[in-house]
Amino acid sequence: MARPTSEVGRFGGPPAAATSARPAPPRPRSPAGDAGLRDDAHGRRGLGIALNLASAVAYSTSGFWTRLIPLDPWTILFWRGLFAGVFIAGVIVWLYRSRTLEVVRGIGGPGIAAACLSTFATIMYINAFRRTSVADVMIMNATTPFIAATVGWLWLREREQWSTLAASALALVGTLVMVGGSVREGHLTGDLLAFGMALCMAGMMLIIRRHRDTPMMPAACLSALLCPLFVWPAAHPGAAAGTNMLYLVLFGVTQFGLGLLLLTLGGRLISATETALIQASEVPLGPLWVWFAFREVPPLATWIGGTIIMAAVAGHVLMSRRQAAPGAAAAATS
C-alpha cells in the first residue's frame, strides 16, 4: 500500500514542501485511463457474477443430499458444518500461510455478525427441507433479492440499476405463485422457515458488501463451525457411519463449504441484490437433481414459479452484459 506524501517525506526522502514551493497542477485524466477503469470495474463485476453462479450450482445440491442421507436434520447439520468448516479452514491456511492468525483476527464485529446470520440461515434451511418440498425451499429463496434491495437502499443508500430491480420484482412474482400452491398443500411451516432463511441470507450479503475490505473468508469458516456447536445438544453424531459418513463429507465439502466460500468471494464484487438474484439460479437445479435421483416430481405451481425466476435471472445477466459492452468498446477504440 502506497504511503501518504507526509510519510514519504519522513522516511523516504525530503518532504514535499521542501522540493517544491508551489503545488503541482493536477494531471488531466486521459480517456484511455477512464476506459481502463471502466474495463476493470466490468471485469470485477463479471468475476463476481461467475463466482456467484458457481456458488448457486453448489448450493443447489442441498435437497439431493438431504433426501439421500437418512438421518435427522440436527445430525446432518452437525457433520455438514464440521466438514465444511475444516474445508474452508484448510483453504485459508493454504492461501495466507503465516498470515492466517492475522487474517482471522481481522474479521471484527461485521465478520462475526455475518457468520451468525449465515449459521441461522443454515439451520432453518435444512429443517425447511423436512417440512416442505425441495422446490418450494429453492423458490422461497427468491425473496432474498427483494429484501436485499430494500434494506440495501435504506442502510447503504445503494441504488440498483432498473434491470436488477425489475428482475427482483419478477422473481418475487414467481415466489408468490409458489406460495399459493404450498399453502393449499399444507407446507406453510416449511415455507416460513425458508423465508426466515432468506432474511438471514440477505443480511449476510449486505454485511459482506458493506465491509468488502474486511476478510470474510474466516467469517465463512466460523459460520460453518458454529452450526455444529449450536445443534450439538439435539444431534446424534454417533448415528453416522459407513456410507452415510461418506455422504456427509461430500455434503459438507462440495455443497456447503464450496458454496459458502464462492459466495463470500463473489459477494464482495457485486451488490447484495445482484448476489441474491444470481443465487436464485439454483432454483431450477435443486428440483432437477431430486427429480433425477428420487423421482420427486414438483407440482405445477412450482414449475411455473421456477420458470419465472429463471427468466428473471437470465434477463438480468443478459442486460448486465449489454451494459458492459459500451465500456469495453470505448476501451478498445481509445
Protein traits:
globular, mainly alpha, single chain
What can you see in these coordinates?
The two termini are 29 Å apart. This protein has 334 residues and is mainly alpha-helical. The chain has one domain. The longest helix has 34 residues.
In short:
The protein is mainly alpha-helical and 334 residues long.
Measure the end-to-end span. 29 Å
Assign a percent range to the helix content: over 70%
Secondary structure tally, helices: 16
Number of beta strands: 0
- Please state the CA-atom Rg, rounded to the nearest Å: 23 Å
How is this fold's topology laid out?
Blueprint: H1 5-11, H2 16-19, H3 31-59, H4 62-68, H5 73-96, H6 100-105, H7 108-129, H8 134-140, H9 143-156, H10 162-184, H11 188-210, H12 217-231, H13 243-266, H14 272-279, H15 282-294, H16 300-333
Helix pairs in contact: 3-13, 3-14, 3-16, 4-15, 5-7, 5-12, 5-13, 7-11, 7-12, 8-11, 8-15, 9-10, 9-11, 9-14, 10-16, 11-14, 12-13
